[in-house]
Amino acid sequence: MPRFSANLSLLFPEVPFLQRFGEARAAGFTAVEGGFVAADPLFPYEYDLDAAAAELRARELRLLLFNVPVGDRSAGDRGIAAHPARRKEFRDGVARAVEAARRLEVPMLNCLVGLRDSSLSPEEQWACLVDNVRFAASALAAAGLTLLVEPVNTIDLPGFLLSRSADAVRLLDEVGAENVRLQFDVYHLQRMEGNIIATLRALLPRIGHIQIADPPARHQPGTGELNFLSILTALDDAGYAGHVGLEYKPLGTTRESLLWITAMGFRLG
Prior knowledge:
Order of helices and strands: EHEHEEHEHEHEHHEHEHH
Oligomer: single chain
Structural class: alpha/beta
Number of domains: 1
């Protein structure tokens, strides 16, 4: 039976962020993820970490992961790991993310690698990415943490540097660190390459976390083109033991958007 986690960046938008912990617990979740984004390069996370830690304890929730700071989102940044001129900024962000993970008892951090820079050669950006991910892997290993790398589709985010599962596997192979794993986002990889069940089965030994949303509109399962009963059953049959993150934009209220879980014979908690 799949175990589901609530992505607080997208679920429960009906209430302010810190109230989403309580909403998630009331809905039946025991694990949450996301929700912490960089406000700007100097302040890695816009929400009070002590307040978030208190909410997690009060609600008896486990926070599974959040992102390493991605740079200045208001300026278009979607990760800076592949930008040679911003190497120090990236590495400082890794240090702050590790400290935040320690305070929130989080086992995994996700690295969004960033956009293609036309002023640089692809080889130069790739070399920087490998070097920075190797650095991050070492820093996280010292803290007992897992680093995730996530392919993102270039339909929604043109120019994203890491967009296919094969590229992510190449990155993992070149970094060569045991604690670096693939974050397999079904929505992004369906938009880029399809063949989800076969790809999940083939890559399962490299996967650290899975997230789902139904293409093409990124709403809850049952609203788009994928058969999530088959996908989630295949995951169970393959022995996947991690959580499946619900990272979708709810169509209707969040509570209404969760009805697919019991309709497909699954449950929360």
